[in-house]
């Protein structure tokens, strides 16, 4: 698997329609950057794809299989992983407890321990601090933990909601390096980001949302060169 196809997606919160007919395709092993101003509907889109809010219209397909309206649990089992906005690590639990809660819950214990070791190898700082409370990590370290926690479930489609928000420049670089590396390992990634230049730099395609609709889409290269994107995001 690994192809995500979204057609005509709608998300409604009572009277507010946050997503109004979104078409989106992420091919296997691609990164698509989902961009747009505050309130454009980016998080709502990811929440619907992850099964956290039921779509009020449209269809979501994973490798051609209709998964529209399935609960988050069922989507997680099918390989959908969400790194939520604002990190949301469990501050009072240890780093290792956070990782173990992260979605390897369906794997047998030896497999869980193996994944934990692999994650601690990949993110040495998490290994060094495995018994420390997650709330004591720096913001950048917490973001790495949030990503590692989702990777524990061995997802095939990774949804990332503003992973670089609020991080120091050096940490931002590390997060983007990691995202590019995850793609090279075969993950399909839908990336919501405020950092437009850096996300278009690693993405294959970009989609700009405005008021729940696509206002612009294209290859990352074309969007980087477009006057609309340059004017809105790359000024100065
Ligand atoms: N749980 C909710 N209940 C009611 N309205 C909501 C809810 N979540 C989001 N909205 C509204 O839906 C619209 C889209 O919000 P959403 O969070 O999807 O935007 P976003 O593009 O992720 O914005 P940001 O860049 O600020 O994270 C906004 O008008 C928001 O106020
Ligand atoms: Mg958001």
Could you explain how this protein is built, in words?
By secondary structure, this protein is α/β, with parallel strands linked by helices. It has a single domain (4-233), classed as Rossmann fold, CATH 3.40.50. The chain contains ten helices and ten strands. The chain has helices at 42-49, 72-77, 95-101, 109-122, 124-128, 139-151, 169-184, 196-202, 220-225, 227-233; strands spanning 4-13, 16-26, 31-36, 57-62, 65-66, 80-83, 157-161, 188-192, 205-210, 213-219. Strands 6-7-8-3-9-10 form a six-stranded mixed beta sheet, sandwiched between helices. Helix 3 packs parallel to helix 6 (139-151). The longest helix has 16 residues, at 169-184. The chain starts with a strand and ends with a helix. The mean pLDDT is 93. It binds adenosine-5'-triphosphate (ATP) and magnesium ion. Magnesium ion (MG) binds at residues 42-43, 85, 161.
Shape: globular
| Strand arrangement in the largest pleated sheet | 6-7-8-3-9-10
> β content, as a range?
25-35%
Low-confidence stretches: none
Ligands bound here?
adenosine-5'-triphosphate, magnesium ion
Class per helix and strand makeup: alpha/beta
What is the element string, with H for helices and E for strands? EEEHEEHEHHHHEHEHEEHH
Mean pLDDT: 93
Distance between the termini: 41 Å
Text of the CATH class: Alpha Beta
Work out the count of structural domains.
Answer: 1
At CATH level 3, the topology is Rossmann fold
